[in-house]
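wait is this the right file?? whatever heres the structure
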């Protein structure tokens, strides 16, 4: 008999009783820059191994884990577009770059003895599975980490939008957005202004009306329309992924109320 799927909608906030995870199924959004080397490009294998070890620890708790990964460490379609390249071509190049990061993360997870599947929105069957929603859910029910690659498969959409879309499609209870620079959402850029103040909680409308650079407006609107909470936290502080899954009060929570 297949395991019972998580109930729709966000569970109550706060740590769950008995040391149990607060969320049964989550989607983790990783930026490509989070895996970058100190020089800003390529893949930092030590960081990759650390992230994989944290993800294996989360899976060991019984959490069904999906991941969407960007490719800013390898290629940004927007930068090529700014140089005159056709937008659709540039976006397709960016999608293919996310497949490279997804395969690297898969390798790191399997070195930690975690079973994984990479599912691509663009068919590349020689290296990964095509994305099929029901198959993805079945992988989760079997305890496999599912890594979604190639964004939505369409140009003009970011990997943030892909994260929102896939989270809703597979019934994730929360979208965990791991930042490699900051520990939450601030009223202004804390890298430029040390007086910037961090928010503990924001509504979706706060994000949109203040034009806060958390996720693009399409992604936030999708979460708002479907009441999918988003937790923004710092990836570089070890153990934060587990803390987020356990329901600890870290980072900034974006929800309806």
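ok assuming it is, sequence goes like this
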């Amino acid at each position: 008999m297949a395991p019972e799927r998580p109930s729709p909608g966000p569970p109550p906030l706060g740590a769950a009783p008995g040391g149990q995870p607060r969320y049964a199924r989550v989607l983790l959004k990783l930026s490509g820059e989070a895996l970058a080397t100190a020089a800003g490009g390529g893949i930092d294998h030590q960081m990759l191994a650390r992230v994989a070890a944290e993800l294996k620890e989360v899976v060991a708790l019984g959490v069904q884990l999906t991941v969407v990964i960007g490719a800013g460490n390898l290629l940004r379609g927007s930068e090529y577009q700014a140089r005159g390249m056709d937008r659709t071509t540039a976006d397709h190049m960016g999608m293919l770059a996310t497949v490279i990061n997804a395969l690297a993360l898969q390798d790191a997870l399997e070195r930690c003895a975690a079973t994984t599947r990479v599912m691509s929105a663009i068919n590349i069957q020689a290296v990964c599975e095509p994305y099929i929603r029901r198959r993805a859910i079945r992988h989760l029910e079997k305890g496999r980490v599912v890594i979604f690659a190639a964004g939505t498969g369409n140009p003009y959409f970011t990997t943030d939008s892909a994260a929102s879309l896939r989270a809703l499609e597979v019934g994730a209870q929360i979208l965990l957005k791991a930042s490699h620079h900051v520990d939450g959402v601030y009223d202004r850029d804390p890298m430029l202004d040390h007086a910037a103040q961090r928010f503990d909680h924001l509504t979706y409308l706060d994000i949109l009306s203040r034009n806060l650079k958390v996720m693009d407006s399409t992604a936030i609107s999708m979460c708002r329309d479907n009441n999918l909470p988003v937790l923004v936290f710092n990836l570089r502080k070890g153990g934060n992924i587990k803390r987020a899954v356990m329901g600890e009060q870290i980072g900034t929570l974006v929800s309806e109320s």
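The domain at 21-254 is CATH 3.40.1160.10 (Carbamate kinase). so i think its the right one actually
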